[in-house]
Every structure is written in C-alpha cells, then in structure tokens.
From TrEMBL:
Compartment list: Cell membrane
A Pfam family it matches: BPD_transp_1
Protein name (record): Peptide/nickel transport system permease protein
Species of the source: Halorubrum alkaliphilum
Keyword set includes Cell wall biogenesis/degradation: no
PANTHER family per record: DIPEPTIDE TRANSPORT SYSTEM PERMEASE PROTEIN DPPB-RELATED
Keyword Cell membrane: yes
Length: 329
C-alpha cells in the first residue's frame, strides 16, 4: 500500500472518530437533567421568557433536528454560543489554546530530555545501580498522581523555598519570544520559564516514566540483535552504535506513544491547569462543567478530539516513512 493510500485510510478513520465524539457529546447533552433555557436564564425567569428562548435556540425542535443543526454548524465552524457568557464558543476555545499547547509541549520536552538518555543508560547498564535507579524512578513516576505531585511541588519550591511562582501565566511564549527578538530583552522569557516549570514537571512526570521504560525495553531488545554485533565487529564506537543505529530502531514505538501522549496531554492537563491556575482549555472545561455550559463543554471536547486524531495521523505519516512495513498493515 502506498503512503498516500495509507494516509487517506487513516484520515477517514480519524473523521469517524471525531464524528463519534460529537455524537456522544450531543447525546449526553440531550439526556442530561435540566432545561437548557432555564440554565441560560436562571431560576427566576418567567415561563414566557423560557419558551421564547427555547424557540430562538431551536430547543423546541425534535432531537434529531437539533443534532443535524449542530453537526451542520460544526462543518462551517459554528460551535454555538456559551450559555453562561453568551460569547462564541470557538472564540472562547481559541483564546485558551496557546496556554494549553505551551504546557503540553513543555511537558513533552521535559519528558524527552530526561527519559531517552535515562532509558539508554538503563538499557546499557543492566543490573547495575543506574538501571535500578531508573527503574525505581519510572515506578514512582507512573504511580504518583499528578494533583498530589503538583501540590507537593508548590509546597516545596513555591512556598518553602520560594524559587518558582505557584501559578498563573502572566505572559505567553509567543509574546516572550517577540520581546526577546524585537527588543533584546529576555525578561519576559525568563518569567514564562519560571511560571511553566512546575506545571510542566507535574504534567510530564508520568510521560517521562513511560518513555523511560519504553526506551529501555526497546534498547534491550535491539542490543541483542545480530546487526549490533556486526557493527561492533567493524570497530564502530559504542556511542555511535547506541544512538545512531540502536536508538533509531527503537524510535518507532516511542513516536507512537509520543503522538498518543501529545493528544492525551492536550486533554489531560485539566487537573494540572486547575492546581496551578493555568489559563488553558482544562481550566475552562472545569468552569464550563461547574456552570453546566454544554455548548462550551462540547466545543472544548470536540477540539481536543480533533487535535488528538490530527496528531495521530501526523505520527502515522512520520513512522510510516521510518518503517515502510507499516503501510502494509
């Protein structure tokens, strides 16, 4: 199968996944208790006002008509209006994307910088103290809940030592980089780094542990193959064999997990953003849940689903180029 056909198939699968998420979310909204018009207007609204709002919003239409109207709106980029703030949902989602994206990328960078070297060392020094230490670190990282780790980091580095701030996002990464390039001032970039360090460590700890274990197991498997013996017999340096040949062949499963986890980090930052008051999609989703603002909740979930499947398709394209055998699956 060619790469083009492979990607077309993956894209069609992604479209069906997003459609499924949209349908499930709409179904949950339809069966949830409470009248949407009453939620929009408050308990003190008169029956006439509620009836008028229901007619304006199409809530008095049959459920299948509401569903078709909602899907048609999504196809043209219309996510509706927030019941709480009466703002366009797409605007409320878009304005929070940069903060969540920054946090997800920072957590991924932290994980890769720590996990891959640690996994390589653990695999090449099996049954040594370095291997035991990496294994213990992985076990602790996977077992530690994010919310508890975030609170402990705030308590230690924010309250007791006073090294890092405990929340907020006073400046975005794009603005900080622009300030550095345009004016030669690194103050905003340093401020951004200070504020994102603790949330990135909290969100990236589980990911770090997962990639460390995956790298170690992949490296151990590859180191036992005949081509490694052949490269060593040719006199190639051990570092070159590990990082150019063995690690490259280990990267396909790592890329797969990386793609899946990037999508997961986009949607799974809810707890971390809440703990650190980080103004991203996760924090906005919690606010929408508290207010039972269904259009906003649906918009955020649909965006996360689209981001998740888009990242997966991109990863499929990347590792299909690394391993052509994937195209035949």
């Amino acid at each position: 199968m060619s790469i083009a056909k492979f990607l077309v198939r993956r894209t069609l699968q992604a479209v069906f996944v997003v459609w499924g998420v949209v349908t499930i979310m709409f179904g949950l909204r339809a069966v949830s208790p409470g009248d949407p018009a009453t939620l929009m207007l408050g308990e003190g609204a008169t029956a006439e006002t509620i009836a008028r709002v229901r007619a304006q919003e199409g809530l008095d239409e049959p459920i299948y008509v509401q569903y078709l109207d909602y899907v048609q709106g999504l196809l043209i980029g219309d996510f509706g209006y927030s019941w709480r703030s009466n703002r366009e949902v797409e605007a409320m989602v878009i304005e929070r994307i940069p903060a969540t994206l920054e946090l997800a990328i920072a957590a991924t960078v932290v994980a890769l910088v720590i996990a891959i070297p640690l996994g390589v060392v653990s695999a090449t020094r099996r049954n040594e103290p370095a291997d035991y230490g990496a294994t213990l670190f992985s076990l602790l990282g996977i077992s530690t809940p994010n919310f508890w780790l975030g609170l402990m980091l705030i308590l230690l580095f924010g309250v007791w030592l006073g090294i890092f701030p405990t929340g907020r996002r006073p400046v975005g990464l794009v603005e900080a980089i622009w300030t550095l390039v345009a004016f030669g001032s690194a103050g905003d970039l340093l401020t951004w780094l200070q504020h994102i360090t603790l949330p990135a460590l909290t969100l990236g700890t589980y990911f770090t542990a997962l990639i460390t274990r995956l790298t170690r197991s992949g490296m151990v498997d590859e180191l036992g193959k005949p081509y490694v013996t052949a490269t060593r017999a040719k006199g190639l340096p051990a570092v070159l064999v590990r990082y150019k040949h063995v690690l490259r062949n280990t990267m396909i499963p790592i890329l797969t997990v990386l793609g899946l986890q990037m999508g997961t980090l986009m949607g799974g930052a809810v707890i971390t953003e809440t703990v650190f008051n980080w103004p991203g999609l996760g924090l906005r989703l919690i606010d929408a849940l508290d207010a039972r603002d269904w259009p906003l909740m649906q918009g955020i979930i649909v965006f996360i689903a689209v981001a998740f499947v888009t990242i997966n398709v991109f990863v499929d394209a990347l590792y299909s180029s690394l391993d052509p055998r994937v195209n035949d699956e």
